[in-house]
Design goal:
Blueprint: E1 6-9, E2 12-15, H1 16-22, H2 48-54, E3 60-65, H3 70-85, E4 90-98, H4 102-109, H5 115-121, H6 124-127, H7 136-145, E5 149-153, H8 156-165, H9 172-175, H10 187-199, H11 208-232, E6 237-243, H12 253-258, E7 265-270, E8 283-285, E9 300-303, E10 311-316, H13 321-325, E11 332-336, E12 339-340, H14 344-351, E13 359-367, E14 373-381
Length: about 375
């Protein structure tokens, strides 16, 4: 028997495929599936001015971000500036600062402390780490116009402990700082967190339930803090700045705020780097890429734990400008440019607006073979 099924046609045996082709049908089987296509009418695509009009009646505006994308932060600034120019009385809730440091945010907005002191007091460079210049225009606008900043996040010590041993492992002091009302029964939220967990780098003994506990603490903690502020300040519009994962699909912070208080709200996220999905947010932005210029580096590995003046040099990166200038392992950096160095934050602040190729004086203390130490200054070309 042929591989083709045979049938009798006009007294002759003819392959089915040949008969179908002769009848206008081509061989083979196609996969026809529903593409679930969404149609966007481009004639109605709007800009930020239209967005601001649509946000005018909202009490809470959630603006998600990719933390390292400057264009996302510039859009956050545009929304804040636009609402301010509309005459809205604003406050800005920020994921990037933790609740115990609220006093430092208040003093910064009041002009009572410098920007450098604000960064030291909030422990920004050890608790958040993303380039401060990404957020600096927003913070400076808030200070210029007296817009309150609200530290939304729980202390890192609490979420770190929950990541290791779950919420049940928190000390009584830590447990007293977390929300008592937490909803872990939303299947859509759990499914989304599971997808993130599957992609997340982790050890073999990583526990999904502990990972879920951390996400819940972040979202419930920030939501509870936001609601407390809204209730205490009924005249304020709150703009919440947080990672897109805390905002998208109305999950994370928005649904947990809505569970506690009924207020008009909207979600705004960037559509860059993700498939278009109209359920993603109320408004989806498509900005052009904007990059910050690179910051100059000394090319040193620092000892941030040891006691003593300045910061110790443990080693050097490849092509280190500091090493080329004469800095040695064991030296303690005590100044960079015009800035004294006593902490890791001081180094980050001193180099913040430098560029590769700049040359800065770096002063170190170097132990002498016999007795004491000597103070040496080197002209270091940054890379």
């Amino acid at each position: 028997m042929s591989v083709f099924t045979l049938f009798l046609a006009a007294g002759a045996l003819v392959p089915v495929a040949a008969a179908e082709e002769a009848a206008g049908m081509l061989p083979g089987q196609d996969e026809i599936q529903d593409t679930a296509t969404t149609v966007v009418e481009t004639a109605r695509v709007a800009g930020l001015d239209d967005l601001l009009t649509r946000l005018a009646d909202k009490r809470v505006v959630y603006v998600g971000e990719s933390h390292d994308r400057y264009e996302d932060h510039l859009n956050q600034l545009s929304i804040i500036r636009g609402l301010h120019e509309q005459g809205r009385s604003l406050a800005i809730g920020m994921e990037f600062f933790q609740q115990p440091f609220q006093a430092a945010l208040d003093e910064f907005i009041a002009g009572a402390i410098s920007e450098a002191e604000f960064l030291r007091r909030t422990e920004y460079f050890t608790r958040w780490r993303f380039d401060y210049r990404l957020y600096r225009p927003i913070l400076r606008f808030a200070r210029e116009h007296g817009i309150p900043l609200i530290a939304l996040n729980l202390p890192k010590e609490i979420t770190d402990q929950a990541g290791d041993g779950g919420i049940a492992s928190l000390s009584p002091e830590q447990a007293a700082q977390i929300p008592t009302d937490m909803d872990r029964d939303d299947p859509a939220y759990r499914e989304r967190v599971e997808a993130v967990f599957a992609m997340h780098p982790k050890d073999e003994d990583a526990d999904f339930e502990h990972f879920l506990d951390v996400q819940l603490l972040w979202d419930e903690g920030m939501a509870e803090r936001a609601v407390a502020y809204l209730r205490a300040h009924p005249d304020k519009t709150l703009v919440v700045l947080a990672g897109t994962g805390h905002v998208e699909y109305g999950q994370g912070i928005p649904q947990r705020v809505a569970r506690r208080i009924e207020v008009p709200a909207a979600t705004v996220v960037s559509g860059s780097m993700r498939p278009f999905d109209p359920a993603l947010a109320d408004f989806i932005l498509y900005p052009q890429r904007v990059d910050l210029p690179a910051t100059g580096l000394l090319g040193v590995m620092l000892d941030t734990e040891a006691e003593g003046q300045g910061l110790g040099v443990q080693g050097f990166s490849e092509n280190s400008g500091a090493k080329a200038a004469g800095v040695e392992t064991g030296d303690r950096i005590v100044s960079v440019g015009d800035s004294s160095i006593d902490s890791y934050a001081d180094i980050r602040i001193a180099l913040m607006d430098s560029r590769p190729g700049d040359t800065l004086p770096v002063q170190v203390l170097r132990d002498k073979v016999i007795g004491g130490s000597e103070r040496l200054t080197f002209e270091v070309e940054l890379h």
